[in-house]
Amino acid sequence: MPGGFGFAEALAALERVGATLLVRGWLSANNVVFDEGPDGPACVVDTGYVTHLDQTLALVEHALRGQSLGAIINTHLHSDHCGGNAGLQRRWPGASLSVPRGYREAVAPWDEGLLSYQHTGQQCERFAPSAYFSSGTDLQLGACRWQVHPAPGHDPDAVMLFQPEERILISGDALWENRLAIIFPALAGAPGFDDAHRALATIERLSPLVVLPGHGALFTDVAGAVQQSRARIDAFAAAPERHRKHAARALLMYHMLEVLQSGRAELIEWISRTPVFREALGCDNNDELACSLATETLDRLLADHVLRQQGETIVLT
Length: 317
Fold this sequence. Notes:
alpha/beta, six-stranded mixed β-sheet, five-stranded mixed β-sheet
């Protein structure tokens, strides 16, 4: 992939396409806001977590600078990427909502068993898409057309958005700069690692100059990020138990960032009954083992001083 494309050049490219990247902290994914153009309304890609809705509304409204939001697009439907959908539509009732077509059977009846929210024990306010789009098509984001490309691995139905003239990629959770997103299908024994490699191969073929990731700041060392992600995927594929422990740890921290504190017994019980943890810890049909491994996961985070116990209460450090 070509090098020599720096931060100043990346910002200039974003300005040319009318895009503003809103870098969010956990629990929310980043938002990308587009100014309205001659052929398209002002729009936003991904909308954060539902408990951050007030912050999302304030940030998006500030980025719009008086424009009316006309469209909402999601790269995928994990709770941190679409939790603000309903709230943004209430604020701008005329805004359309478009999501990848692979989610249609789950979203149309709002089946939280097929969606990830029940599985992960996370929240998401119900929303109703006005359109579904497929990989291989284009979307109008503000003034420019963006290509839709598949991004399996982290989620089978996720997509990436690519602007070919400026070579900007909105990667969702398919590529971060210094970390690797959980490969959720692999927790269930599906070929998620192979799919994640296929998403990286697509990124290499597109050869973007700038990546706007789902989490973290924009970056231009795309080749380096792809190389690191490949190495992490290979390491997890060679030792799936490491990936399972990584997933359990990351998901528990996400929950603690949401609730901020929890009783120790209550937290162990929540871990041991939440489907994604039982899947990650390999104890789907064994309640006693689930409780034991939940305790082990929590105690590991306490030993690492990421969490702290005060009496019988667990808090963030």
